[in-house]
Design brief:
alpha+beta, about 550 residues, four-stranded mixed beta sheet, 22 strands
Length: about 550
């Protein structure tokens, strides 16, 4: 999922904390004798549309006001939620799900199995234009429907009474995690059709199946509420009646509010100065996540410099990831060794996947200068000017671009780097339309399995913003998801080969694996922090 620096849910790094949040710093304060909590987001939410959302912060609100068939527990494992039972065939190609009895929407109307059929059909329907349609790949006819080559009702998701049946074209090791994922939460077709283009653009034009309902969001305002949904099946275990949400974009301001007792949890990892000033506070806690910061190169051919493999390799070799991570994150994060981050998943042998697949990114200024000079000759130039785009509302963006500008221009004679800062939402649009030379991206896993990262850059993938084509990479990922889907050891090897292919062609430039620390009010308990998926589950959150 896209994050401002973006975010995710890994089974190996899920914790329950007394105030929980992700590393971006998402929490706010509360009063009213434990009946109200107040959480803070660092950037405005974009939508409440379950099928169309792609960013972490909107996903946090959607994930806490909606429910799926399963829900990830404090140990990172999928457990039954709206489903009474989930069973699969021995070959992994059929999942049969029976819903709990008496399920209701927030308006009191009946929630049915057909509402799940509709939400799966809506996300793969080309008319929806969901960037997450690819997550359904592997469900019968999903790819054909997304490509406009099969009718929507041919999708392998059907309902009969209270029973759902999922037919898969290939085994999907991550499938139960998809049954927890916010973008596959149910939607009521008649409500969506009634609202039309206004659907989920405000809190009043959305319907809720989860612990809370959203109130007071008009589509642009920076304060709103989540209130307890009394029609939620497990409402008796939701102890907090109201959660106030506010947008506080300046990290220093958020920390000040925390120290004034007005915010329950804030990140101190947004800038080196903020971390250094607060790292010894007794309230400091670590905020685990599985997120990679990386550079994407525009490889459409519009930029002749970045279409040149030697110039891309020179940029990668001129990147001192250790020095960058120390300067930008005060050493809190870890220099990236590849695309897949630490704490995402384990290999069949129990090794961290990131360590196993690492292809050998290094810093070598001398070799970089040589390759850059050769690359310039190949494109018929003696110098190059490139622009790096990042988020205007990300505290780490300025220091990241300043570092890259200074270090690259020093290491690569003839290179000039321009910095470009745009709002988070605009950066997403610019990335999707290839309106960039180089763009800083952050991706957090949607589930704890390698494909959540490796699907990003397959040929034609919706998040392959650089639009490069790497046949060997795509073949390796496809092999992991088909032939080797039920053989974890073989899948591990496929992902290692995929990393090697990305590295060989210098298609991206991994910078660091993000981690962070927050100040946390010890009186707040019950928040489940995940490293992938719904990174903050507020269902059981309460203030003592």
């Amino acid at each position: 999922m896209e994050t401002w620096k973006k975010v995710a849910l890994g089974a190996a790094a899920v914790v329950v904390v007394g105030g929980g949040t992700r590393a971006a710093g998402l929490w706010g304060g509360s009063t009213n004798n434990g009946k109200t909590l107040s959480f803070q987001l660092p950037t405005p939410i974009q939508t409440l549309d379950i099928s169309k959302n792609t960013d972490t912060y909107s996903g946090t609100i959607i994930g806490n006001s909606g429910s799926n068939l399963m829900r990830v527990d404090a140990k990172g494992k999928p457990q039954l939620e709206l489903a009474k039972s989930v069973k699969h065939s021995d070959d992994g190609l059929t999942y049969t799900v029976v819903l709990k009895d008496g399920l209701k929407w927030s308006d009191g109307s009946k929630l049915t199995a057909q509402d799940f059929v509709y939400t799966w059909q809506r996300i793969v329907n080309p008319k929806t234009a969901s960037q997450y349609a690819y997550l359904a790949s592997g469900v019968e006819n999903a790819d054909k429907i997304a490509a406009g080559k099969a009718p929507v009702d041919s999708l392998g998701v059907t309902a009969k009474g209270n029973t759902l049946t999922f037919k898969l074209e290939r085994p999907m090791p991550q499938f139960e995690y998809l049954l927890t994922f916010a973008n596959f939460m149910p939607q009521k077709e008649s409500f969506v059709n009634k609202e039309g283009k206004k659907y989920a653009t405000t809190s009043d034009t959305a319907l809720y199946s989860g612990p809370y309902k959203v109130q007071g969001w008009n589509g642009t305002n920076n304060t709103f509420k989540l209130v307890k949904n009394d029609n939620y099946w497990d409402a008796k275990n939701v102890k907090t009646k109201e959660i106030d949400v506010q947008i506080v974009q300046k990290p220093d301001t958020a920390v000040q509010l925390y120290k004034q007792g007005k915010i329950d949890r804030v990140s101190i990892s947004n800038t080196p100065e903020l971390y250094k000033a607060n790292k010894n506070n007794k309230d400091v806690v670590k905020a685990p996540e599985a997120t990679t910061s990386y550079l994407e190169y525009n490889q459409t051919g519009k930029n002749k410099f970045l279409a040149n493999a030697k110039i891309r390799e020179a940029l990668n070799l001129a990147t001192n990831r250790k020095e960058l991570t120390d300067q930008v994150t005060s050493g809190v994060s870890t220099p990236a060794t590849g695309l897949a981050p630490q704490s995402l998943a384990k290999t069949a042998s129990g090794e961290d996947l990131a360590k196993y697949v690492a292809p050998g990114y290094t810093f070598d200024a001398a070799k970089a200068a040589e390759l850059f000079k050769d690359g310039l000759k190949e494109v018929g130039e003696t110098s190059a000017t490139l622009t790096i785009t990042s988020d205007a509302d990300s505290p780490a963006a300025k220091s990241t671009l300043d570092y890259l500008q200074g270090s690259w221009e020093k290491a690569l004679p003839g290179l000039k780097i321009n910095e470009k800062f745009v709002p988070f939402q605009q950066r997403l649009k610019d990335s999707q339309t290839q309106n960039f030379d180089i763009v800083v991206s952050l991706w957090g896993g949607d589930y704890p399995e390698g494909s959540t990262f490796y699907d990003l850059f397959k040929d034609g993938a919706s998040y392959n913003n650089g639009q490069f084509k790497n046949d060997a990479y795509t073949q390796a990922v496809n092999k992991a998801e088909t032939t080797d889907a039920l053989n974890q050891s073989a899948r591990d090897t496929d992902y290692k080969n995929a990393e090697a292919d990305l590295f060989k062609d210098s298609n991206i430039n991994p910078l660091y694996f993000r981690s962070g620390y927050s100040l946390q009010n010890p009186k707040v308990t019950g928040i489940v922090i995940n490293t992938t998926g719904l990174n903050q589950d507020w269902k059981l959150a309460v203030k003592k």
